Amino acid sequence: MSNSEKDSGNGRRPAGQSNAGQERSFLDDVPWKRALLFGIGAFVVGMVLFTGLIFVEGAIGDDLSEDPSDETAEDDEPGVATLVGWLYFGGQFVDIEMSWALGTESMNLLDETSADLTIPTVVYYLVPVLVLIAAGYKLASQTLAEGSTPEEGAKIGATIAAGYMVAVVFATQIFTWSIQDGSTTGSVNVAFTEAILISGLMYPLLFGAIGGYLVFREN
């Protein structure tokens, strides 16, 4: 009997045989549909909470019926939904960019308006953090079985970044404003690169992971 046959009889894999068939990637176990839904839902919930805080402040009008897509170059002010969107991104340290013929200027709208707010600014910054932690916690608790490790929970929680990124990209395209002052034209947009890197990636990956970790840390 050959050595390879002996090895097979003893249950050992012959040298050089691939074990790819028995290996599973972490990505195989990710509930991508849920991750997308939880990520998009986290962005929407964050926006709703931010809107509530803004209304409590009375900082802007109370009519959210305006559609940002209805704004034209002749509008004197951006729509309420657009303003809330800019503030929400500001709560994630993402600037808005004002582009004119002579150049581009950027600012964090939440920081710029903080002096006029009665609710402490830190509350606004905590909204997206807590929403993402909650989303990561909920996703991991519904996906993983009891006895899973905190590290496994963190990995699953971080996958909400997939849906949150979709929402961020969409929001950067609709929360825009164009203005014309005589012969001068300009536009105001969410800083796209900052939005992708900070709001779309860093925030959901970090805080979603924390939420998922906490599920099994408690056990």
How would you portray this structure in words?
This protein has 219 residues and is α+β, with helices and mostly antiparallel strands. It has one domain (38-217). 55% of the residues lie in helices and 10% in strands. The protein is built from eight helices and four strands; from the N terminus they run H-H-H-E-E-H-H-H-H-E-E-H. The chain has helices spanning 3-9, 32-57, 80-90, 109-113, 121-143, 150-158, 161-174, 192-217; strands spanning 96-100, 103-107, 177-181, 184-190. The chain has a four-stranded antiparallel beta sheet with strand order 2-1-4-3. Helix 2 packs across helix 3, helix 2 packs across helix 7 (161-174) and helix 6 (150-158) packs antiparallel against helix 8. The model is unreliable at 4-21 and 62-75 (pLDDT under 50).
